[in-house]
Design brief:
Layout: H1 6-32, E1 39-42, E2 47-49, E3 57-63, H2 68-84, E4 89-95, H3 101-111, E5 117-119, H4 124-128, E6 136-140, E7 146-151, H5 159-171
Parallel strand pairs: 3-4, 4-5
Antiparallel strand pairs: 1-2, 1-5, 3-6, 6-7
Length: about 170
């Protein structure tokens, strides 16, 4: 009786496990497509929930005052916010600064930022969303689904980006 070589068995087992793992990852991504609710405090000490933004597009920017690329993109985020803030669009910044309000408030004031800032000093929400680098930005649709993730700084006031948001908000 011919024997099944051990190496072929190991290869078959590895392939089977890889396929199973791939399906599990796909299922996890599909399940996690819905943005997980969270509650964080804003700079006034008030609790803000993600669910408060249901019914509109929401841009969430994870950042920190010590992050150079974050500081570079902040003025363009402010431009985007001022241009599209409406009953269809909102934006929040989530700071990962461990000193919280003490460092975030002066930065926000000096930079003349008007979009809401939340504090995630222990990085609980950042971990919940799988943020591994700053800045990381999520776009959530009115039903609460994550429809875009961008790691790294972006020029949010770029004409192409502004056109994207203009078209997106026209559709809804």
């Amino acid at each position: 009786m011919p024997q099944f070589p051990l190496s072929r068995f190991v290869i078959a087992l590895v392939l089977m496990l890889a396929i199973t793992a791939s399906f599990s990852q796909v299922e996890a991504v599909e399940r996690s497509h819905l943005a997980q609710d969270f509650t964080l405090k804003n700079l006034d000490g008030e609790e803000v929930n993600l669910s408060q933004f249901r019914g509109k597009y929401l841009l969430i920017n994870f950042w920190a005052t010590w992050c150079g690329p974050c500081k570079i993109e902040m003025p363009s985020l402010e431009t985007l916010y001022r241009r599209f803030k409406s009953d269809k669009f909102d934006m929040i910044g989530i700071s990962n600064d461990m000193f919280g309000d003490r460092v975030v408030r002066p930065y926000v004031k000096a930079s003349k930022l008007t979009f809401p800032m939340l504090l995630d000093q222990r990085m609980i929400v950042s971990h919940q969303y799988g943020v591994v680098s700053l800045p990381t930005t999520f776009l959530i649709d009115p039903q609460g689904k994550i429809i875009g993730v961008l790691q790294g700084a972006e020029d949010w006031s770029d004409p192409g980006t502004l056109l994207y948001f203009e078209n997106l908000l026209k559709k809804s």
